[in-house]
Amino acid sequence: AQSVSQHNHHVILSEAASLELGCNYSYGGTVNLFWYVQYPGQHLQLLLKYFSGDPLVKGIKGFEAEFIKSKFSFNLRKPSVQWSDTAEYFCAVRGATNKLIFGTGTLLAVQP
Amino acid sequence: NAGVTQTPKFQVLKTGQSMTLQCAQDMNHEYMSWYRQDPGMGLRLIHYSVGAGITDQGEVPNGYNVSRSTTEDFPLRLLSAAPSQTSVYFCASSYSRGRNYGYTFGSGTRLTVV
Predict the structure, then answer these.
(1) Helix, strand, coil percentages for chain B (3-state, nearest 5)
(2) Residue B101, Cβ density class (10 Å: 0-12 exposed, 13-18 middle, ≥19 buried)
(3) Does A99 sit within 8 Å of B90, measured CB to CB?
């Protein structure tokens, strides 16, 4: 069965700091990987996705993620965060059955 | 193009009551699914369907029933609501695996069971 682990439950950063959120998955076959963001009071928004090809994926709002197959990881990065990046971030994995399984999320608070 | 429509947006139930959360999509997506979102637990898959007439259990199926009689609709039924089912429920749909396509999410139903 597929599963996703997000190691950082709560992250606090100052504006302009760099961000890296960890995501590891467990699945034996080919996967598609996603990062979603949920701003306070809003519903999910897709940040970026990986299906195949270049393992370095660029998304919206300056976010990027790198798929490292040997480490079963898909970490999210941003070189310089802004106060408006305060949100909850979810990593998700899709396996062969098309099921999308989410991690438990990381709450990011950016202090001005 | 409406995308994924969930109704109602808010609902308060008494313990033991039943209700159906509606989910409809107009994109001809084969795959549909239901999630519940609880603080600190992310989104957990309740049930999913890979096509009309086919449903399967997800991570937390107990207390919920689903059916998929048409491609467009995927209702979620709570037969006897419990306070533990207080949550925000999201419906999502997608094409079948094999297309480079993500998921479309509904705007959610906030359910409170008292």
Answers:
(1) 5, 55, 45
(2) middle
(3) no
